[in-house]
Specification:
This protein has helices at about 25-40, 55-60, 75-85, 100-105, 110-120, 145-155, 155-160, 165-175, 235-250; strands at about 5, 15-20, 40-45, 65-70, 90-95, 125-130, 135-140, 140-145, 180-185, 190-195, 200, 205-210, 210-215, 225-230, 260-265, 265-270, 275-280, 280-285, 290-300. It is of the alpha+beta class and about 300 residues long. The protein folds into two domains: about 5-120, Probable inorganic polyphosphate/atp-NAD kinase, domain 1 (Rossmann fold), CATH 3.40.50; about 135-295, Tumour Suppressor Smad4, CATH 2.60.200.40. Strands 1, 6, 7, 9, 10, 16 and 19 form a seven-stranded antiparallel β-sheet that branches. Helix 1 (about 25-40) packs across helix 5, helix 2 packs across helix 3 (about 75-85) and helix 6 (about 145-155) packs across helix 8 (about 165-175). The protein is elongated.
Length: about 300
């Protein structure tokens, strides 16, 4: 894994982009400010005012800071990552949302007071990004099927009230009623046709969720210059339970109801059309065009 060159630079001034609508962001903001002060780092704070505002904030202010930190959910982090793809400064992701998947996947402490010093003294990782035809970027993966139903079924009110349990509830409902669809998947010009209940164009192979490490396949790396199509095709409830069990166990890639293809350019078509999600944000309906941007994101990670 090309995970690292030393972050060696001394951070003197950073920008903290806070999503005030995220579940834990506002209460964690004071912890973050105290941690930056303790480290001798000047920190300015800007609040996002709606979807997409994080991208604008980062684009307009990046040149004035040694690093940009985000405090919100994965969506807030991806807005800033989108703005700074293939250009600096580096980005530090602090936990402030419901799932905090990127934080957990990158080994960042889940407490803000510990995450700030861990990132300030950490190292820099260059990771790949996926990009849709609309310009939306993702670092975890783009999914259609059961995982989209999980995201759609967890309302903002439910997430504020019960946190991660909102996703547990919606994921359980989606798994109990999988809706299969016809899939036409084109990877670097090669066409594959399957019936599927869940398709993930994955950049991260291991995702921490619900206290478990979910492994979508074997050999999926965030810095290999590729994305990986993971297709799961259960035919009945027993197949669904087996697949999810094996995803949690780490050997789903050997299951007879799975299919994998790695590449750099993807076209995802479904019959009937299905809505997609990327890193927890709902997108448009299929068809989707996806490409990889190798090593496009500069992220701070703990040593």
């Amino acid at each position: 894994m090309n995970q690292s060159r030393s972050a060696g630079v001394r951070f003197r001034r950073v920008l903290l982009v806070v999503n005030p609508g995220a579940r834990r962001a506002l209460q964690a903001r004071d912890d973050a400010m105290r941690a930056f002060t303790a480290a001798g780092v000047a920190c300015d704070v800007l609040l996002t005012e709606g979807p997409g505002h994080g991208t604008r904030i980062a684009s307009e202010n990046a040149a004035s800071y040694d690093a940009i930190f985000t405090l919100g959910g994965d969506g807030t982090a991806m807005e800033v990552i989108t703005a700074l793809a293939e250009r600096g400064p580096p980005i530090g992701i602090l936990p402030g949302g419901t799932g905090n998947i990127l934080v957990r996947a990158l080994g960042i402490p889940i407490r803000v007071s510990r995450a700030v010093p861990a990132l300030l003294s950490g190292r820099e990782a260059r990771i790949d990004l996926g990009r849709t035809q609309s310009g939306r970027h993702f670092a975890i993966g783009l999914g259609v099927g059961i995982d989209e139903a999980m995201i759609a079924g967890a309302s903002p009110l439910m997430k504020k009230r019960i946190g991660l349990l909102a996703y547990v509830w919606s994921a359980t409902k989606a798994a109990l009623r999988p809706r299969n669809f016809r899939l036409r998947l084109t990877v670097d010009g090669t066409v594959y046709e399957r019936e599927a209940a869940f398709v993930m164009i994955a950049n991260l192979g291991v995702v921490p969720l619900f206290g478990t490490l979910f492994r979508f396949g074997d050999g999926i790396m965030y810095d290999d210059g590729l994305l990986h199509a993971c297709v799961y095709s259960p035919r009945n409830f027993a197949d669904s339970i087996r697949i999810f069990t094996r995803i949690a166990r780490g050997d789903v890639h050997t299951d007879r109801a799975t299919f994998y293809a790695a590449g750099q350019q993807f076209r995802l078509e479904t019959d009937p059309p299905r809505r997609a999600q990327a890193d927890g944000e709902l997108l448009d309906m299929t068809p989707m065009e996806i490409t990889v941007r190798p090593h496009a994101a500069r992220l701070l990670i703990p040593r």
